[in-house]
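Before the break, one more example. Copy the sequence into your notebook; we will annotate it together after we see the structure.
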Amino acid sequence: WTVTGTRNEFTVTPGAVDYVILTPAEEQHIIAGQTLQFTAEAFDSFDNLISDTAEDFTWFNATESGLLNSTTADTYIVRATYGEVESPDRTVIVTHGEVDYIMIVPYQSQSIQAGQTVQFTAYAYDTYDNLITNSPSAFTWNNTTSTGLFNKNAPGTYLVDARIGLITSIDVSVQVNQSGQINDATEISIVTDSESDMPYNSA
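Here is what the structure looks like once it is written out:
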């Protein structure tokens, strides 16, 4: 017996997208200024790969190549969508970096009478302007209490600053006058909401 036949070739193409996998799959933690690369894969219901090309997906909180590169400390949800099918959400927590500069309020020179006090507040920021802390106990204070309260009674001129490690705020001059005497320096008791104009020393 001789059996003859025709060979047929078949091309099997993936079906419609059924699910999307996002990698990495776990919650991620990075520091402001760092980047995190995500990859996405779209599959049909038979686990056939449809696409793993980043530009084929619509990204949420990532670039078109799947890169998260935020410098703002916050919690982000990253997601990739292929057609109408979304990947599971991935949480990325971006935390602040190291202290880069410190601002102190009030930052204008102060003039008070003996017995009066001035309350100072300090703010520590990283290089991307993320607030690290404004807790008084986080700072080492010069010429105030541990809470930033200036309460010197001896007449004279004092320099106030706040420090964390090697990073120090600008010096603020406080002149204490004898009771009933005041000079022309400006006394500030109200601080505006904006801190953008505060002077500071950069690391």
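The chain is about 0% helix and 45% strand. The CA atoms of residues 73 and 126 lie 10 Å apart. Try to locate both features in your own notes.
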